[in-house]
Structures are given as C-alpha cells and as structure tokens.
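tokens incoming
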C-alpha cells in the first residue's frame, strides 16, 4: 500500500487504520520509510484485512526510521474520526462512458475533490504534507526506472494500488515522473495540478528548467543512462498492459496523461518535446496492442454468438446469448474509447512530431508507426499511414531515412501483407532504388535489403533497370553495401532451382546442379565489364553463396571435361573468366579476409573459422594437386589462363603431397612449369612461375629437395644458355642480328624474373650483365628491351648481395666488393639517363632512385653500423641530372606523353597509365628529398610547379613540403622563397623588367606565394623563425640588383616585394617590426619619399609590415609581448633574462636582428596526408519532374508566423524531392487540434479500427479523405512566402500520396 495516502506532518505520531489490501506481487519490493513484516511477505495474493500501524519520525527520516507492522484481524474497514482518510470507493467508480477529454482536466465538480474530500478543514495542511512526501515518492519512481533493476510489473502494480486509493495523488506522481524524466528539476505540486491548466504547468516547468546544460536523461552518456530509455519505454508498456481491463476506461487517467504528453510535445524545450514524444509513441504502441486484443476478443465473441444462435431452439441457451451480446457491447464500447485515445495521440503528437526539427524525434515517430502497421495491419497498413513513411524517406538525416527502411522491412518480410503494399511499392519504388546510392552507407545497405525483400515478394515489381542499379554495387569498396548487393544478386539470379534439379542434387562435377549457376556467374561477370574486379564480386557473394563458390570440383570439371550432349561449350573468354573467379574463391577461402580496400585490416579468426580454413585448404590441395597439372597442360599456350592457374600452389597445404602420396602429381606439376618457362617470354607468366617455385621451395616440408633440384636444373640451363648467347652476341666486328637479340632477350627475361624471388648469386650474373650494359654505352645500338632487363637483373644482383651481407657475418672483402659493384652500377645508370630511348631513361632513373635510397645513411639505422662503408651520397652532377629528368619527363602536358591512336577509349586509358607512371617517377625523386639523400634546395624546382600541375601532382608536392618542413623549417622556407625567385627570374627573362604587374604570369606567382603561406598553418609561434628567414631572403633578393640608371629608379627586382607581402600575415606583431627595420637597411631616404607606380611594391610591402605593428617598439629578441599583442601571444610565457637590443644596435648588425636558433620552437611531427581509396562513384539519382511529389504544409494566416526557411541544399542525394522538415513547436496548445483540422485535413484523420470479421452492425472503414476536386493542373501554392509550383495529373493517374493536396483550393 502506498504511503502517499498518509499525511506526513512535522513531529512524530502514529496512525491506526484498517483497509482492504492486495498483497504485492514482489514481496521484496518496499517503499522508503516502510518495512513489510515477513508474515506479510509470505502471504498469498488474496484479499485480506490488515491492521496497519505506521510510526513516522521527523522530516527527512531514513528507511530504517519508519516501520510498518501488519496484523490480520477480522473486522470491517473503517476510518478513525481523527484521520484524513475517507472512503474512496465511490470516487473511483466509473462515472459513465463518454468522449475522451482533449485536455484531460477535471470538471468543476471534481476540482474540489482531492484525497481529503474538498472542503475538510485539514485539506490545506494535508496537501502541503503530501507535497513533501510526494517528492520522496516521485524520486523513488524515477530512480527505480532509471536503475532498471526492479521488476517493472511490481513497480506498476504498486502505482495501480496507489491510484485505486487516491487517483489524484497517483496521477501527480506520474506527472512528476514524466517531468523528471525530461531532466527538469521542477515539481508539479498538488495545488498546481488542481488549479492550473496544462499549458500553465508546462510554462512553469519550462521556467524551472536547467538551461545551463543541454543534456537530459535520453541523451546523457554513461552505462546508467543507456538503459534508461529501454526502462522508460518498458514502464509505459507495462502500465498500459496492467491497466487495460479497467483503469484506462475511467476517462480520467488516460485523458490526463495524453493531455500532458500532447502539451509537452508542443514545448519549445527540446528535452520536453523529445521525452514526451517518445512516451506518447510508446503509449500509442501499447494502445494498439490493446486494440488488437479487443478485436480478437470481439471476433471470438461474435463467433460464439453465431454458433449459439444457429443451434436449434431446444438446445439454444438464451441466457448465454444475452451474455454474449452484453459482452460484445462492452467490447465495442471499449474499442471506441481506445480509438478516441489513439486519435488524440495521433493528431496531437504524431502528425506534428514526425516532421520535427530534431532528427531523433522524427526517427521515433517513424519507428513506432512501422510497429503499428506491422502489429495491427488491418487498421494501420493502408495508404493513409504508409504515406508518412514514404514522405520521410526524403528526410535530410540518414538516421530518419534508416528508420523508414527498417520499418518497411518489417512489413515486406510478411508475405501476407504484400497485397496491401502494392500501391505504395509502385509509388515509392524508384525512391527506394535511388537510396541504394545513399551517401550514408547504413541507409544504402538497408535500402538494398529492402529491395531484396521486395524481390522475394514479387519479382515482377522490379524492372531490369532497377535490378541493374543494384547489381553494380557488388563492386563497391564498402563491404556491407557490397555484401547486401551480393545477396540481392544471389536471390535474383542464383536462388531459383528447377524441379528437375532436385533429382540430380547428389551429382557432382559438370552434372551437379551448381554447373548452370557457375555459368550464370561467369556470364554476369563478363557482362559487368569490370574484368579486373573478380575478387570483389566473389567477396560480395561469399556469405550468401558459399556452397556455390566453394564448388571447385564443378569449376574444374567445366574446364577439363567435354561438354555433354546438347550443351554449349564455354568460349575462350568465358574460360578465362571462370579461371579468374576460381582463383579468387580459392584465395578467399585460404586467406579468410576480403580483398584490398574492402576490410579494415586482418582480424583474429575464431576457432570455427580456423577449422574451416584448414578444411578448405585441405580440400583445395587434394583436388588441385591432381587437376592443376592437367589444367596447365590444356592451357599451356594461353598466357592469361596460365598466369592465374600458377597462383594456385600458393594456397596449398604442401604437407598433403607427402601424406596423400601425391609425389607423382608434384613431379607432373614441376614438368608443366618447366615447359611453360620454355614456351613463354611474357613477364607476368615468368614471374608467376618464379613465385610458384618460391612457394613450393619451403624447407619445412619434405618436398623441398625435390623442388629445389628441379629449380636448380632450370636455372643452370638458363645461365649456361645466357652466357653462351651473350658471348656470340658481343663478338667484336659482327653486327648482331635479330634472332640473336631475341634469344638473348628471352633468356634474360627468364633469368630476371627468377632473380626477383630467388637468390641466384652463385651463378655470378653481375659480370655478364655489366659487360652487356658497358657495350651498350660504348656502341649505343643495344636494343632497349635488353638494356631494360639487364639493368633490372643487375639491380637484383646488388640487392641480393646486400641482403647476404646484412643477414650473415660478412667479411670486409664482401663489403668492398659490393661497394664497388654498387658504385659502378650507379655510374652505368647515370650514363643511361641521357639515352635517347625514353623507356631506358625511365628504367635507369627508377633504379637509381631506389639504389640511392637503399644505400643512403638510412642503411645504418637499427644498429647496422658495420654497413657504413656502403653509404653512397650522390654528387651534385648526379643530383642535377636526376632533377633535369624530372623536369623533362614529369612536368609536361598530357598530349606530349601520349602516343596512342587506337580510339578515344584507348586514348583515355593510355593517358591515365602515362600519368600514373609520371606520378611514380616524381614520388621516387621526392622521396630522395624527404630523406635528405639530395639537397633540399633541389625541391625548389618541384615546389614552383605546385599551382601549374596541381591536379596531377598537387598531393605529392604538398606532402613533400610537409615532410621537409618537419626536417628543417628554416631550410624549407628558404626553398620556398627560392622557388618563387626562380619563377620571378623566368618571368623577367621572358618579359623584361618593364613587365605588367597585372599580367597573368605575375598574378600566378602571387597566387603561388599565397598558397605557400597557407601551408604554414595558424600557429605562428612554430613557424616564427622560418617566416622571418623567408622575409630576410626575399628582401635581399628584391634589392640585390640595383638599377643601372641610378638610385632614383627602383631596383630591378623590387616588384618581388609584392610577392613577398603574401607572407606578411604569418609574421608575429613584434617580428613585423624587426623585418621592417631590416627593410630600412636597404632603403635610402629618397626611396621612402617616392610615390610613383614603380615604387608601389615597396609601399605595399611596408604597409603590410606596419599593419598592427606600429605600436610594438620591443625587440623580438626580448621575447616580451606588447600591450597590443594578440591573445595567443599573451598566453605565451615570455622569455626571461634576455637583453633588450636597442634599435641602433639592430640597424648596425643583421645578426642581432633575427631570432637565435635556441629561441625557436620545435615543430611537432606533422600528420601524414590521408590516402584516398577509390570507391564506387556515388551520384544522386535525379527523379523525373513528375516524381517531385514532396511538398510543404500550409500554415493558417491567423497565426502570423514568419516565413520558414527550408534550407534547400544543392546537389545531394537527399535534397531534390524531400519534404521540408518544419519545427512547429511554436504553435500554442490552445486550439491546436482545431487549427490542424482546418488546414491539414489529410493529417488529422480519425483512427477507425476495422470492423470485426463477422460483425454486421459496424460500418465500413471511412472512405479515403483525398479529395479529387482538389487536384489541379499547374497549381501554385503560396506557403509562408514560398511560391511552390506543382504538377499534378488527371484523376486516373493522380499522385494521391503527395502532401500538396492539403494546400490546394478549388478555383
């Protein structure tokens, strides 16, 4: 029994009373200040009479200070004359049926009634006492829900008992519970509850709301608050469930709660609006469940009535018929009341809040309406409610769009509801298809899953074009999107199986049911025309089509076996595609991670996944150890097929060759690889053979010796053949013919490919390659391909020698021999930098950059000081040649490097390939700059190209700037100003000294300077010394060349000060003064008086230094900020103990002008520029003009609201056809429903539950409220100052989902 029924006053007193009591469902539950005796805890749930003695202490008593003792007596309930109790049974009786009160307030006769009976003298004191006790009780209810530990049903049952005792006090507790759940510290008193309207109470609570914090329970962080939302929703659901048989029909509790939540949902305070909307929507969901139960009971009652009435008169029970009629009447009345309640919530809350300005509130509304339609489809699953979901799919926030899709998924999942969704599907199908390209990946995933459900419900709904829009997403870089698209693809093309396939389920190989599905997969892959992305296609379908993709026996049979009678054989192109897909499936099974770009990194496999991986590798090895030699023999002359097939042994479990007694198949495989090496000269094929030997030559397995012998024999033959051919090829006096050159080249290709993965040092290939390259330099007629591969092979020789001396204890002779070979090789590469052939020069440049990088001072890092003799620093001539190569071969126009003439498509492909090659060349040289292998000032020629080639190399140049600044800020600044000086000198050479400063060339240099200035960032302290040094070099350059005509004419480079002024904003205030003093050293008195145009650069530069720096008379070396310095400078701790340098001393020495190195602040390591990953282009799907069905809602003129700015965005996926989200929280509570009905009839429909299946007296569902007369052609709606032109169709094709009809009027 709730303690609120007892008045608590100061002091100590005891009360004795007897009343009827129903034992608690949860014996362990107790209120603060009361303890239940063990006797009561063990009592059965039955109606008992208790004698309750309560002993109270003073205010603020603890739980242990109050005790309740209960004794079972046999007497009738009565109240002593000196208590404030009265008989409440009459008060709680039902007053009669009626419409739900919109405001939920008591009538005039009820306002005087309270717990103490209106006019009793003790009333005021009692209410004041209750207010104190209510604070404890209300806190208790909120705390219980917040903790979520107690059984919610027990909490609700206790509140129901309190309500039965005194409904005003219980409702006051519930009201304060909702207020407190909103984060409001205010308390609604009994006096406020009795005498104030809801709007006044809400206004009062708004004033007491804590405005300092924007957090409230639904948005607070922490584990305690994460459970609060679920506990809060559970409380509301249990409350309605426990009250569904009596209390919700008393026309008081639900009226009050609905009225309160409606008013709060209209509040300007977000916390009130959010919390009350959630409560109202959950309340509506609970009522929908009650209505559904009522409908079921009515159907059952009607069926029983019909069965009883159909009996013969002798067996018919008239009393039972009357009882069934009475029961049906009561159920009908209850259902009418539930309809009224749901109408009040729907009209008062949903139709406003589903378009609230807060996305969370809109999401709540859409989520709940989806539950209503799924739970009670007979009443809610119709176009009148589906339209809200359809409109909201155009919401600007992905969270809301996501709720729309998940709500629809629940509906489409039930195939019995498909007939009711046909019209909605036809209207909003295009929108759902377009959402597969949503900018929010979560939304795109759910849109694809929804289309999959639509596909399963009816394949005719989606057109071929719709399906194709989803198909291409299997190649998306975002894995969840690709997996969802893969499932859609599988359901559409692979899940159907003919009846005749059921009889061949146990067949294997080419006759298995998967054979046709594998062919279908190949056809799809070829038709998608993305032949390099088979790995992404396989990964997309891996989860849903595992059995199909792992049927390697079927795939190999399709490749090896002859086609059956009447079966079309696979074409050459289809066989190549099948081999590529088979390779990708084997790789995915063996590695257990998605391809590059699809995953966030390798994850730890579970025990089950590891077991599956081992089983798959065993299956792959057992199958392809036998089949692979046969496949290689069949396709040995096809380079593309052989290249893919040769990758399979990398995923074998090599132990099975021994345990499975498959050595003969290993020998067959080695013979096939040897034959392929002899037949092919293609680099890809030869490298695949080399990698296969490398995978098989694993010393951990017993097959190592067998494979090593085969490999050594092959290399011996190749080396002997190469030496023999080379001796004949290089004979003096004889001109080599083409056959000899081809033989040398093919053998050299094979050796180079094997040297990439295998150490061939014992064959001493350096000497013969050096002889070949030396001859090429002397004669100049060596074929370019021979030179390219000879350079590459020699490079491998050097690297293998380095690995050898690094890993093992090498002698001094080994280091000296490697040093000599490396230096000789660098000289050869340097010679080939001037070769006439571009391919040779590019190869020599790339190898030179690699060798210089490897043998730089970095080689000694990690404790490898013994390698110091190998360090090689390029001389100035080599650095100059490398830089010249970059300027001549990288910074060129696209057309200059494009030699393709095979059509526009090939032309574009060749341009992209050429650009990629040039970017690699530039990156190789920039790496030398970053690691200080070459001088940093060589970067000036790179930096000056930043603007001109920004689209092609901007990211590389910017990253180089960033890295060089981390190494040495001052030297980097000097390099930047040097690049500007070079551009300035180039302009002078072209245009002379009398150039136009408004010319594009000079403006381009100024813009480049501005871009350089932006790269220094906002923290001026970190770049202080570098910026000062930059200005120093710039000033010296500007006054470096005096004018031959005398001092009355400006220096020749004076215009450079105009460029230098772009960096003035990066100077600190005190540094501006220092730079200005340094500038005055170069100026004469006459210069300061000049005002001609030619002196404008000097004047503008002086003004840029004087801006904000005139009041700063302190030297920069003093480190003391002036009073006019910035806030940032004020926060900087001033340097102490530094001597102030007088201006006279400053002007006499430039060394005293600049910051000492010790004073400069170190620049922290700058973050690396994030890398960009290529993804599927996600362009918004533009809807057709006749699909622009989103509108706005008209506001009534009498409200005098300001025009609303809908903030329509530009070209984004969600911006074209969305309904504007209008926050109508400014609408007053008074007359809101009436205003709504006046202008928004389409939103304020009455909820009319469907009639019982066998009930004749119920009317049909109300007709649709769409008015055909309101549909007009080329109508124009003026809404709050916005003129919106809309296009409507004839009645037959009218878009009756459009919300525009609400703002149209009949002309």
């Amino acid at each position: 029994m709730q303690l609120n029924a007892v008045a608590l006053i100061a002091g100590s007193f005891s009360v004795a009373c007897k009343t009827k009591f129903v034992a608690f469902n949860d014996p362990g539950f107790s209120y603060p200040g009361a303890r239940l005796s063990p006797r009561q805890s063990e009592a059965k749930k039955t109606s008992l009479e208790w004698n309750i003695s309560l002993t109270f202490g003073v205010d603020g008593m603890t739980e242990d200070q109050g005790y309740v003792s209960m004794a079972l007596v046999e007497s009738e309930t009565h109240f002593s004359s000196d208590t404030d109790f009265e008989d409440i049974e009459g008060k709680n009786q039902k007053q009669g049926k009626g419409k739900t009160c919109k405001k939920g307030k008591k009538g005039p006769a009820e306002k005087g009634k309270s717990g103490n009976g209106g006019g009793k003298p003790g009333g005021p004191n009692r209410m004041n006492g209750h207010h104190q006790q209510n604070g404890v009780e209300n806190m208790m209810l909120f705390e219980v829900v917040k903790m979520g530990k107690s059984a919610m049903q027990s909490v609700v049952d206790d509140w129901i008992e309190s309500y039965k005792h005194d409904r005003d006090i219980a409702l006051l507790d519930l009201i304060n519970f909702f207020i407190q759940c909103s984060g409001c510290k205010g308390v609604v008193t009994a006096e406020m509850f009795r005498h104030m309207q809801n709007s006044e109470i809400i206004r009062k609570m708004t004033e007491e709301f804590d405005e300092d914090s924007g957090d409230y329970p639904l948005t607070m962080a922490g584990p305690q608050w994460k459970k609060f939302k679920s506990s809060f929703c559970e409380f509301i659901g249990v409350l309605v469930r426990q009250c569904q048989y009596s209390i919700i029909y008393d026309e008081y509790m639900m009226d009050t709660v609905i009225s309160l939540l409606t008013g709060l949902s209209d509040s300007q305070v977000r916390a009130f609006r959010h919390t009350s909307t959630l409560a109202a929507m959950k309340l509506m969901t609970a009522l929908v469940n009650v209505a559904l139960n009522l409908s079921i009971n009515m159907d059952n009652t009607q069926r029983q009535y019909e069965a009883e009435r159909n009996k013969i008169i002798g067996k018919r029970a008239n009393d039972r018929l009357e009882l069934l009629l009475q029961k049906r009447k009561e159920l009908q009345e209850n259902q009418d009341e539930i309809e009224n309640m749901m109408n009040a919530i729907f009209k008062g809350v949903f139709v406003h809040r589903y378009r609230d300005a807060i996305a969370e509130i809109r999401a709540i509304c859409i989520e709940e309406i989806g539950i209503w339609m799924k739970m009670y489809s007979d009443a809610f699953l119709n176009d009148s409610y589906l339209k809200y979901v359809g409109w909201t799919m155009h919401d600007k926030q992905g969270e809301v769009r996501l709720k729309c899709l998940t709500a629809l998924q629940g509906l489409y999942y039930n195939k019995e509801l498909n007939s009711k969704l046909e019209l909605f599907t036809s209207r909003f199908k295009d929108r759902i298809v377009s959402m597969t390209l949503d900018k929010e990946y979560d939304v795109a995933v759910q849109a694809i899953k929804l289309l999959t459900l639509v596909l399963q419900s009816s394949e005719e709904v989606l057109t071929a074009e719709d399906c194709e829009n989803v198909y291409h997403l299997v190649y998306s870089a975002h894995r969840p999107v690709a997996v969802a698209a893969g499932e859609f693809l599988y359901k559409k093309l692979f899940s159907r199986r003919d009846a005749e396939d059921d009889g061949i389920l146990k067949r294997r190989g080419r006759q298995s049911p998967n054979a046709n599905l594998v062919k279908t997969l190949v056809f799809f892959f070829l038709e998608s025309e993305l032949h390099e992305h088979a790995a992404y296609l396989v990964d997309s379908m891996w989860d849903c089509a595992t059995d199909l993709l792992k049927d390697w026996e079927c795939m190999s049979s399709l490749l090896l076996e002859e086609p059956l009678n009447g079966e079309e054989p696979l074409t050459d192109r289809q066989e190549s595609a099948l081999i590529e897909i088979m390779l990708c499936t084997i790789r995915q099974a063996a590695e257990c991670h998605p391809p590059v770009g699809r995953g966030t990194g390798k994850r730890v496999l579970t025990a089950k996944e590891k077991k599956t991986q081992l089983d798959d590798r065993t299956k792959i090895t057992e199958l392809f150890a036998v089949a692979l030699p046969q496949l290689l023999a069949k396709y040995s002359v096809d380079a593309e097929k052989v290249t893919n097939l040769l990758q399979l042994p990398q995923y074998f479990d090599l132990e099975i060759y021994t345990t499975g007694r498959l050595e003969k198949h290993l020998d067959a495989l080695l013979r096939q690889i040897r034959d392929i090496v002899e037949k092919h000269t293609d680099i890809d094929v030869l490298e695949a053979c080399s990698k296969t030997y490398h995978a098989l030559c694993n010393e951990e397995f017993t097959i190592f010796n067998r494979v090593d012998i085969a490999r050594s024999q092959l290399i011996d033959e190749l080396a002997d053949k190469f030496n023999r051919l080379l001796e004949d090829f290089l004979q003096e006096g004889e001109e080599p013919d083409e056959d000899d050159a081809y033989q040398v080249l093919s053998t050299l290709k094979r050796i180079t490919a094997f040297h990439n993965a295998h150490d061939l040092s014992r064959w001493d290939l350096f000497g013969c390659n050096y002889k070949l390259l030396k001859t090429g330099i002397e004669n100049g007629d060596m074929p370019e391909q021979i030179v390219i591969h000879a350079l590459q092979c020699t490079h491998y020789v050097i690297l293998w020698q380095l690995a050898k001396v690094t890993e093992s204890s090498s002698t001094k002779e080994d280091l000296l021999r490697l040093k000599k070979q490396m230096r000789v090789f660098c000289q050869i590469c340097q010679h080939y930098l001037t070769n006439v052939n571009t391919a040779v020069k590019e190869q020599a440049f790339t190898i030179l950059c690699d060798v210089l990088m490897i043998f730089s001072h970095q080689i000694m890092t990690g404790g490898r000081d013994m390698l110091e003799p190998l360090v090689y620093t390029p001389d100035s001539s080599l650095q100059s040649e490398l830089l010249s190569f970059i300027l001549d071969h990288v910074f060129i126009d696209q057309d200059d490097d494009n030699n393709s003439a095979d059509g526009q498509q090939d032309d574009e492909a060749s341009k992209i390939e050429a650009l990629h090659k040039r970017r690699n060349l530039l990156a190789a040289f920039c790496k030398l700059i970053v690691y200080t292998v070459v001088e940093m000032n060589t970067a000036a020629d790179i930096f000056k190209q930043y603007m001109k080639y920004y689209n092609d190399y901007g990211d590389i140049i910017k990253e180089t700037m960033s890295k060089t600044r981390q190494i040495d800020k001052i030297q980097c600044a000097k390099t930047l100003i040097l690049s500007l000086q070079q551009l300035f000198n180039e302009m002078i050479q072209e245009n002379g000294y009398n150039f136009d400063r408004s010319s594009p060339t000079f403006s381009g240099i100024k813009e480049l300077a501005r871009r350089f200035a932006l790269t220094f960032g906002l923290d001026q302290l970190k770049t202080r010394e570098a910026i000062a040094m930059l200005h120093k070099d710039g000033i010296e350059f500007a006054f470096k060349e005096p004018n031959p005509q005398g001092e009355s004419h400006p220096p020749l480079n004076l215009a450079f000060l105009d460029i230098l002024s772009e960096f003035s904003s990066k100077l600190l205030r005190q540094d501006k003064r220092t730079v200005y003093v340094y500038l005055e050293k170069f100026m004469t008195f006459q210069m300061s008086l000049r005002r001609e145009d030619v002196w404008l650069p000097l004047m503008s530069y002086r003004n840029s230094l004087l801006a904000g720096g005139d009041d700063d008379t302190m030297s920069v070396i003093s480190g003391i900020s002036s009073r006019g310095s910035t806030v940032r400078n004020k926060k900087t701790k001033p340097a102490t103990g530094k001597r102030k340098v007088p201006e006279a001393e400053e002007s006499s020495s430039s060394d005293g002008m600049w910051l000492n190195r010790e004073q400069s602040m170190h620049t922290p390591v700058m973050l690396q520029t994030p890398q960009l990953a290529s993804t599927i282009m996600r362009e918004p799907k533009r809807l057709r003009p006749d699909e622009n069905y989103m509108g706005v809602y008209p506001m009534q003129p009498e409200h005098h609201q300001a025009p609303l700015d809908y903030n329509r965005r530009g070209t984004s996926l969600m911006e074209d056809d969305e309904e504007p989200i209008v926050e109508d929280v400014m609408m007053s509570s008074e007359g809101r429903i009436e205003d709504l009905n006046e202008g928004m009839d389409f939103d304020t429909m009455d909820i009319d539950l469907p009639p019982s299946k066998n009930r004749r007296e119920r009317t049909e569902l109300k007709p649709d409220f769409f008015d055909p007369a309101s549909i007009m052609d080329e109508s124009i709606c003026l809404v709050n100052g916005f003129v919106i032109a809309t296009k409507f169709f004839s009645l037959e094709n009218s878009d009756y989902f459009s919300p525009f009809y609400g703002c149209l009027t009949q002309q």
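note: The beta strands are 14-22, 47-55, 67-72, 1275-1279, 1282-1286.
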